Amino acid sequence: PIILGIETSCDETSVCLLKGKDKILSNIVVSQIDIHKVFGGVVPEVAARKHIDFMYKITKQAFKEAEITTEDINAIAVTYGPGLVGALLIGLNFAKALSISLNKPLIKVNHLMGHIYANFIEYPNLKPPFIVLLVSGGHTMILKANDYMDFEIIGQTRDDAAGEAFDKVSRMLDFGYPGGPIIDSYAKKGKDIYKFPKPLYNNGYDFSFSGLKTSVLYFMKDNPNAKKEDIAASFQNALVDTLVHKVTKYAIKNKINDIVIAGGVAANSSLRKKLSEFSSKLNIYYPSIEICTDNAAMIARAGYEKYIRNIFSDLNVDAAPNLSLKEL
Ligand code: ATP
Ligand code: MG
Ligand code: FE
User: Fold this and answer.
1) How far is ligand 2, taken at its centre, from the CA of residue 133, in Å?
2) How sure is the predictor about 38, in pLDDT bands with cuts at 50, 70 and 90?
3) Considering only CA atoms, which residue is closest to atom 29 of ligand 1?
């Protein structure tokens, strides 16, 4: 089948045409980073309006690049949550309109399942059970994938998400938005010499990053001459160490050798490097950088999984800003 994927949950407008399991015919991602950068974060109302600007244009462009017509697609997969309600509604309503006018079935997709499924594009032979470290702008979780559509939550953050912590610390350091990639590159020029706390390090599988963020803030007040590169490296190290420690501990303890990382923070070079140190014991999977952050290819891929199971959605489906992984 050919699945049209649509993603508008936050500040990326994206459309993909995916053939079969893993052949990306086109995947257009328009990022609104430059628009939101001046505000230091995503402005929901602005994001929604920008999605309207881009939605139709990039859909046409996606078909053109894929060299197929609307007749050739078999279904339309669209993110219905979690995310910003106004932003979600643009993609969802566009998908509904296409579904009616083209007479093609609609498939609602959970954005978080999409992040996990980005890995299936890269690794077609990946099979459950596996462990997932889902680290994004809004979520931080360790999951056990018992089956293709069955994700059990092992641990999650009690406050800030990993990506959110990167973004907030970046703002404190005056690096700008989005913080993850900027801190990642500054950290390469710095040294991990400041010992920031690693909350809940040896305490179960939940996370808490708000205290780490606050301690960076106090440290900066007390040490105005500390090098920003060193602060970035030390912060990143404390956070990444905690992620790696918990997820590898769970995998080893439960004898599941495959760890899949997903979400925007999966692009982090230090996270990839530290996990690769376990490669003699564990198999580590991560998507290529382009499909770590929000994109429609991952949505189309998750949609494909529902398509082959004949799981379609009716046109009453509403945007679900707080959707959990229990509901796919
Ligand atoms: P969610 O998927 O939870 O709804 P989101 O869609 O906003 O949230 P993603 O698009 O998955 O999140 O990821 C964006 C986040 O990833 C941002 O917080 C960004 O700072 C972070 N990020 C991107 N690249 C890197 C990197 N190299 N290192 C660390 N963090 C990164
Ligand atoms: Mg984004
Ligand atoms: Fe996301």
Assistant:
1) 18
2) confident
3) 180
Find residue 3's DSSP bridge partners. Answer: 18, 75
Q: Which ligand is nearest to the CA of 135?
A: 1
Cα separation, 115 vs 135, in Å, equals: 9
Which tokens is 141 given? Answer: 């979780």
Residue 37 has pLDDT above 90, yes or no: no
- Taking CB atoms within 8 Å and a gap of at least 24, the contacts of 181-188 are 181/267, 183/232, 183/235, 183/236, 184/236, 184/267, 184/268, 184/269, 184/270, 186/228, 186/229, 186/232, 186/233, 187/229, 187/232, 187/233, 187/235, 187/236, 187/237, 187/270, 188/233, 188/269
End-to-end CA distance of the chain: 21
237 token code pair: 């190290």
The mean pLDDT value of the chain amounts to 97
| DSSP 8-state assignment for residue 5 | E
Distance CA 210, CA 208 (A): 6
**Tokens 């628009």 correspond to what residue?**
35
Residue 41's pLDDT is what?
Answer: 86
The DSSP 8-state label assigned to residue 11 in this structure reads S
CB of 82 closer than 8 Å to CB of 321: yes
Residue 175 CA to residue 172 CA, distance in Å, equals 8
DSSP bridge partners of 262: 134
- Nearest ligand by distance to the CA of 47: 2
Listing DSSP states for 135-186 in one string gives E-SS-EEEEEEEETTEEEEEEEBSS--HHHHHHHHHHHTT--SSHHHHHHHH
- What is the Å distance from ligand 3's center to 11 Cα? 9
Distance between CA atoms of residues 53 and 56, nearest Å: 7
Q: Is the ipTM of this complex over 0.95?
A: yes
Who's near 228: CB < 8 A, 6+ residues apart? 173, 175, 186, 190
Place of tokens 């994001």: 47
